[in-house]
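Most newcomers find our protein records easier to grasp once they have seen one. To make this concrete, we reproduce a full record directly below:

===
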Amino acid sequence: MSSIAVRAVTLALVLATTFPLVGARAADPWRPISRAEALTRASSGQLEQRRQAYARLGEVGLMEDTPVLLSALRDDEDIIRGVAEISLWGIWMRADDSTADPLFQVAMDLMQQMKLAEAEAKFDEVIAMRPDFAEAWHRRAETRVLGDRWGEAAQDFAHALELNPFHFGAMEGLAHCNMRSGRAAEAVQLFLRALELNPNLEQLIEPLKRARAMAERDRT
């Protein structure tokens, strides 16, 4: 699993334990807000309103809401940036398909158990059902990286980016593939683009430095 995906899981655990759902406050009557309400509250000057809005978009948001969440990755508040990143993954990891989504989760579980052949077969099935589901291509690419099949992984990462040009996780993956194949200059551009979209990805700083050093050596 990529360092960005690991970061997403870690953030989710921290947020879940630190910021309980508003519905847990017994004194406040609560109902889930709609997507439209969430989009309206996202521009609120109140921290809690924005936090609720971005968290809710992770549950009911659409791919077209990606730019809203990307803009929140530059919020002044750490908690807003964290919630927005988790919500982006929440949107990206849903096909909103009653058959594809459970199968995708099975594939994810198999990948985390390092049952790579079985995981890839399940991702193949998801892609056959929903070829427009960028995250299935991204996760199949990660499975292929784990199996040391970098060339095939690069093709999947690239296709994921065709489907979702904002996918900083796929950019990271493709950048590492490019470094492996000696295309350091291309890797530099991908790392820079990922950091432009999500400036909170501090774990990309060192790979970017290595890619720049490799690219400089290639030029001399």
Summary: Residues 3-18 form the longest helix (16 residues).
